[in-house]
Structure formats: structure tokens, C-alpha cells
């Protein structure tokens, strides 16, 4: 019966009502012999899928699929096929920059870090900038920030600016500080800090959050062509990892123009949901112009304003209700003024624009909940363009248990990145103390309260690999299998929940659940094919699982094995 219904649907939608479909034109793509997880509760498993143009027209068994004919058939040979995975929070230009610039990931000691910098300096002309990203000091001995004096040893003549993995802190050497005229008398900008030596008051070279902009605005800007190459490098990496859609967590106008250009030129295949940074003039212009929905044949949507409201735990910029456990002189800070956000939030509700806000510390989360709630009260549903606005809180890492139920009550979506837990929890007990970890990375608590979670990677802060994110969500252990006091293993999610975190829940979070997020007739033909069954294999095997094919709109965008029959 299911086969007849599916075939009838294909006839009605794509064929002449009174004529049988010609064999050669029946469907455009047939996938068979698969271990298919559909994320459709009514029919959770399948073996075969048929695609016409960019839509799914059949989901069922191999036997049922024999009635279809296609110019291309892919024999999945038992491999696992999932709805196309979505990275709900990444920074695509940062991913490209990490690949093209000095990549400092995996530098496990200060000496390793400096050796990589020295190597890049030797390849760079005297006096030219050296830029890099990816270092994190928490695994060094001792776990201390690098200083300008450290970098000066290997780069005395080149300005150097090296960003921590989380993007919320950077170290600049003396040459860079001299160019931008930062010295002991330079005051901290709002929402940031220039770290200074406690004895002599001189800058150490470490710049937190908005203080980084003092240097960044003096770095020569890349050309449009270079910026386009950065974008395409990031996109190609994401497709190779099995991501069919990315939700890019913030862009400025120049980059939005480049994003639209690569789609207009037909150079990009990945589905792209973009945000515009706010508050500011660009956000105001966006509010006036309105959203862009499903442009370039469902490949580009821009309907969201992104706010960055505090820093990160690692660099002690996350805004906490109480001081840091290992730095009692600070409790972090807000990076935007609440009074600047209120009018923008209210206008966004009236104009049907979604808002997502980076909030990591418990004080930042509480305040943004207050601000969202205030906007919802000021602009009731009958005055909104979209009655249920699906606003998001990005990261929601440290939440006071008293505030956690407010997310579901307000209809908010926590957008969380599982790999943060398994990297941060090595140093979070020192930063926060054991007691505050009860509300840290609280995935299961959010789900039990009635929320869904949009899962992402926050690459290039983290590696950006889908299998690391899935593993972190279900295991809540380090990639070496480690756990420790304060890791709260009860907050791990089931594999079914984890799969939803990267498929149907991100689709809902971007108002796309009718087109994406599950394998059902009529939805876009986006699929991720894996080498192993991540729903059944031992946890540690998840990390060894490879993406073997990425299919977007029925088009195979990544297939290193070329396992197919024509």
C-alpha cells in the first residue's frame, strides 16, 4: 500500500495524470541497499529513496523501489544514510581562514606554539603581518596565556596577531602593539580588556573580546577575491565533513555580498542560513529591508540578527553572577549594553526578524532571558509579524538552575555545541568551581524542560566535525574516553536525541521543518552517508566513522569513493 501511495504521488507531482512515466524519466536518482534513518516517527527506517529534481518522491524498501527507473542509481551497500546534517552554529569565514592561515590547533605546549609561529615568520616578508588562530593554553604546563615577550622571541620584526581557539582572546606581539599604539595608558574598551602586568602596568599582549578590535582594524584587509576564496574553502570543508546546511552565526555586509555572489555564480552547493550582526547600522538596514527566504533555489536564507552578549569561559570574559573561582577579581562582562538591545528586539518582533544571542555565562543568560521576555511583553503576538518568533540563545553554556525552565516557558531554542563540554570541562571546574557545573552544558535538563536543542560545532572554535559533535552529545567524555568530577554524565543525550539535534531540530530553529530535517516525500533530497551505523556501534567507534557521501538537492557534492552504478 505504501509503495502504491508513493508511486501515485510521483505521478501526480511529476508525470502526466493519464500516462505512465517513461522508464528513462521516472526519477532522476535512486538510492538502494541503504541503512536509512529517516527521523520520521511514522516510518523511522528505510532501504531505498527516489529523487525527482531536488525533492524526495519515494521512501521505502528495496523491493518497492524496483518499479522506479533512474539514469543514476547509487548502491549504498548497507551504509548508513541520514537526513542531511546541519551545523546550527559555525563561522564559515573563520573556518576558511583557519585552513588558509597559520593553524595553531594541536599546539600542546608553549614551545610547540612558538615553533609554529617561528616557521611561519620565516616564510613571511620582513615587516608583514603574521596571522593565526587555534591555540588554547589550558593544556599547557603551566596553563597560562602567552605574552608579547614570548612571541617577540620568534618574531621581533613582524607584527603578529594570534587568536585563541574560542575567538574571544588574542595575543599580539610588541611590533603589533606599537603599530596600534597600545601601551600602559590605553584604557579598556567597553566589552573587552587589555591585560596588563600587575607589577609595571605594561600590556602583556593579551587582548580580550572587543579589545581585539583595536588591532584588527589596523590589519590590512583582504581583497574581495581573497575573501571569496576563504568562504569557498570553508564551504568545501563543511561539505566534505557531511554537513548539508550551515547556519552561519553572524556576518557583516561586505561578507553578505560575497556570500550572495558565490551563490549567484553557482560556486557554492551547501545550504546557507545567515545572520546579520547587531546592534548597529547594518542591523537597522536589515530590519528595514526584511528577510531573504529560500533564495538561489532554497540555498540561502537570511532572517536573523546575531548579538554577542558576553565573552567565553576560557578567557574569563563570560559574564557570571559571581566571580571566577580562579580569578576572584573578575566576573566577566557584557559586550553589548542592554539599553541598546531593547528597541532592536522590539522592532525585530514587529518585522518578523529572528534574534539569536551569544550568551555563555549565567549572568549573560539571565539578562538575555529578561530582555527577550521584556520584548515579548512589549510586543504581544497580535503585533508581531510572526506570532511564535523562535528566538535562540547561542551556547547557553552556564545557566543558573533557576533560569533553565524559563527557556521553554518563553519558547526559546538553546543552540548548543556538544564539543564545548568535552573540551571546556577540563578547565571549567577551575574557572567556575564544582557547584556551578550543575547548570553547565545541561542538554538533558533542557530537553526534559520542554526545549529542543539546535546542535552545532562553533567551528573554528572547535574542529567542526559532525562525528565529534555526535560523540560528545551521547558520550559526554573526551575524545580519549575520559571523564571527571563535575562532568555530569547524566546530561548526555540518547542517540535518537543527538540525531535530532543535527537534523529536524535545526530545521525547526530556522523555520525550515517542512522542507528539511527528515527523509519524507516532498522534502528536499539532502542526505549524509556514513561508513558506520552511528546509532548502534560502540561510542568510541563513532569517532572513527567517516563521511562517505554528501548529497544536496539530489546532487552528489562529495563522494570520494565514487561507489555508484550508472
Which key terms come to mind for this protein?
21 helices, 21% strand, 566 residues, globular, alpha/beta, Diaminopimelate Epimerase, Chain A, domain 1, eight-stranded parallel β-sheet, six-stranded mixed β-sheet, 32% helix, Urease, subunit C, domain 1, single chain, disordered N terminus
Task: Walk me through this protein's architecture.
The protein is α/β, with parallel strands linked by helices. Among the domains are: 2-84 and 527-535 and 542-558, Urease, subunit C, domain 1 (Roll), CATH 2.30.40; 94-216, Diaminopimelate Epimerase, Chain A, domain 1, CATH 3.10.310.70. It has 21 helices and 25 strands. The strands form 4 sheets. The protein has an 8-stranded parallel sheet. It has a 6-stranded mixed sheet with strand order 3-2-7-23-24-25, with no helix packed on it. A 6-stranded mixed sheet has the order 9-10-11-12-14-13, sandwiched between helices. Strand 4 and strand 5 form a beta hairpin. Helix 3 packs across helix 8 and helix 10 (281-289) runs parallel beside helix 12 (338-351). The protein is globular and about 80 Å long. The model is unreliable at 1-25 (pLDDT under 50).
How would you concisely characterize the structure shown here?
The protein has 566 residues and is of the alpha/beta class. It is 32% helix and 21% strand.
